Amino acid sequence: MIFNSCRRYRKSFYLSIIMLLLTSLPLFSEVSIDAGTQIISVIPQYDLSGSNAWLEVSWADSYYFSESLSYFIDSALRTGYTPLTQSFEGIATCNNYLSFRKNSFLTRLGVSGYYDFTVDSGYTSSVWQINTDVFISYGNYQFSLYINPGLSLLQDELNNALNFNLTAGAVYAFLGQILIKPGISTEIPAEQTNGEVPGISPFLDISWYTGIPLTLKSEINYRINLSTDQNNFVLTWVPEATLLLKRGITATVRSKAEYRTYQTSTLPDGSIAYLYDPAFKLSPELLSDFSLTDKITLHAKTTLGWTHYYSTETDDITAGLSLDIEIEF
Amino acid sequence: MDKIREGAAKHIPPQRLITAVNNELNRLKTAQIIVYEQNIKPENEDRYANRLKHISILLLGGIKDKTITRLFNLMAKTSRTADDILAACDVLVEFNSINLLSQDDLYGIGKALLSSRLKASTFSGISSVYLNARAKRIKTEDILTIIKNTLTNGGGIIQIDQEISNRGRYR
After folding, report:
1. Which chain B residue has its CA at the smallest distance from A215's CA?
2. Residue among B151, B166, B158, B140 nearest B112 (CA)
3. Between chains, do A70 and B149 touch, taking CB under 8 Å as contact?
4. A42-46, A168-172, A176-180, B143-147: the lowest-pLDDT one
5. Interface of A with B in 49-88 (CB under 8 A)
6. Which residues contact B160 (CB under 8 A, 6 or more apart)?
7. Most confident of A63-72, B34-43, B88-97, B155-164
8. What is the CATH architecture assignment of A170-329?
9. Selected residue with higher pLDDT from A85 and A238
10. Does B99 contact chain A (CB < 8 Å)?
11. Which 114-133 residues of chain A touch chain B by CB within 8 A?
12. What region does A91 belong to: left with phi over 0, alpha with psi -120 to 50, or beta?
C-alpha cells in the first residue's frame, strides 16, 4: 500500500526536488563548483572502463537564529560521464538539519534525500531515497547519552525498501580529548522486497583529538543479521588518521577492513536468494587537500580495494586515483 | 645569545640573523609590557622568563598583542588564571597554523574557551576537532560558530563532535 502511494507521487517527488534546487539557488551564499576525474583500474587486467569525469555544483548554508537554534542545508547536483562505457549519471542530493541546543539537551531533526539517474548503453534507471531522523542527546562536556530513531524509504526500478532504524549510545570524554562511543543500532525493514533483513549492530567508536593538529579515529561495527533462516554477520573496522602537513595542506589516511559471512534472504515466493559470499575486504585510502587560495582547493584521493572470496578462492583488486578542484564563491 | 649561537652554527647570513634577533627582542618587549600591564609577573625569575618566552611564541604564531590583552582582560570575569589564558592562546596558535584567521575570530574562540566549563588542560583538543571538521569540508565560518555556540552553552568536545558529525561531505 505504502509503495503504491509512493509510485503515485513519484513524479511529484522528482518535480519537488528540481523545484527545491532551483528555488533555493538564490538563497544560498555558499556556492561551490567542483570538477574532477576518477581513474579506476581493475588489477591485473588494467581495465579502466569504470573511469569517469564529473562536475558538481553544491550549495550549503547555515542559519543561526540564536545561540540555541540553528538550521543547516546542503544541496548538490552532480553529473558524471564514463566515456568507455558511455554511461551518464546525475545525482541530486539535499540534506536539511534543524538543531536545537539548550543546556544539556541537543535535539536535531534531519531530513535528507537523493535522486540518482543513470543512462547506461541506452538503458535508463533511477533510484531515490528519503531519510528522516531525530537525534536526541542529553549530557554535559564529559558524558552524553543519545538516541537516534530514523526512517528511510528507497525506491529503484524493481524494488522498494522501507527501513526503520534506531541507534542508541553513550559518549564519554576521557581526559577531555578521547571520545569513547559505545552504542547499538538496529535496522528493521518493513518489507523484505529488496532482500533486506533485520539486523542488530553493536559498535564502538573512538575519536582521539590529540591536542596537536592530528585526529585519530577507530570505528568497529559488528552487524548480526537477524533472520530465522540465517546466522551470519559482518565485522568492520575503520581506523583513520587526519593530520596537518603544513598550513593549508591536510591528509587523511583511512582504511576499511570488513569480514562477512554468507548472507541469504528468503524472498516472498519462499525461495532463497544468496546476497553475499563469505569474503574479506580491505580498502585503504589516502585523501589530501591542498588549499591553493582561500577559495580554491585541490582534492586528491588514492584508493586501493582488495576483496577475497573464500568460497571460490578468488580475489578482486582495484586501484583508483581521483583529482578534483573545488572553487567556492 | 642562544639564538645567535644557534644561527651562526647553521651558517645563517648575519643580516638575517640580526633581523631575527631584533624581531625576537621586539616580541619579548611586547611580552614584558603585557605581563606588567596585566599584573601577571611571577615572583620566580625562571617562571617570569618562561612566561615572556611563552607570550613571544604566541606573537610569533600570529596572535596580536591586542588579542592577548583582550583575553587577559577576561581573567576576572571568567575566573581563570594567567596560565589558563595562555593555554587558550596556545590553541589559537594551532588554529592559525591550520588556516589563517582574523584576530576577531581568534578572540571569539579564545573567549568561548575561557567561558566554557572545560579545564585548561583539555583546551588543546579543540584544535584537532577544528582540523577534523575542515577535512570534512565544513566551511570555516560554520565550524567557528559551532565551536563558539557549543562552548558558551556549557558543552565540550562531545557536543561539537555531535554537531559536526552530520555536516560536511566525506569523500
Report:
1. B128
2. B151
3. yes
4. A42-46
5. 58, 60, 62, 64, 67-68, 70, 72, 74, 76
6. B126, B129, B146, B147, B150, B151
7. B88-97
8. Beta Barrel (2.40)
9. A238
10. yes
11. none
12. beta
Identify the residue with better confidence: A284 or A24: A284
The alpha carbon of residue B133 is apart from the nearest alpha carbon of chain A, in Å, by 10
Task: Say if the Cβ atoms of B158 and A212 lie within 8 Å.
Answer: no
Pick from A137, A242, A248: CB nearest B132: A242
Residue A37 has pLDDT above 50, yes or no: yes
Domain spans in chain A, listed from the N-terminal domain onward: 1-158, 170-329
User: Quick one: closest CA in B to A141, which residue?
Assistant: B156
Q: Over the stretch A9-21, which tens digit does the pLDDT of each residue have?
A: 455 555 555 555 5
B96 — pLDDT class (breaks 50, 70, 90) = very high
Measure the CA–CA gap between A248 and A158, rounded to whole angstroms: 46
Question: How far, rounded to the nearest angstrom, does the alpha carbon of residue A67 sit from its chain's CA centroid?
Answer: 29
Q: ipTM for the complex? A: 0.85
Phi, psi (deg, nearest 5) at residue B29: -65, -45
Judged by a CB distance cut-off of 8 A, whether residue B128 touches chain A is yes
Probe site for chain B from A70, A109, A175, A177 (most B CB atoms < 10 A): A177
C-alpha cell at A105: 539537551
Interchain pair A176, B162: CB under 8 A: no
- Average pLDDT over every residue of A251-264: 88
Question: Using a CB-CB distance cutoff of 8 angstroms, which residues of chain A are in contact with residue B158?
Answer: 139, 141-144, 171, 173, 179
pLDDT score of A80 more than 60: yes
Q: Which residue has the cell 613571544?
A: B56
Q: What is the pLDDT of residue A321?
A: 95
Closest CA to B162 of A166, A303, A171, A197: A171
Q: How far apart are CA B152 and CA B77, in angstroms?
A: 14
Q: How many beta-carbon contacts under 8 Å exist across A and B?
A: 144
Confidence grade of residue B23 (pLDDT, cut at 50, 70, 90): confident
Q: Where are the domains of chain B?
A: 1-60, 64-171
Alpha-carbon gap: A179 to the closest alpha carbon of chain B (Å):
7
Sequential DSSP letters for A188-212 = EES--TTS---EEEEEEEEEEE-SS
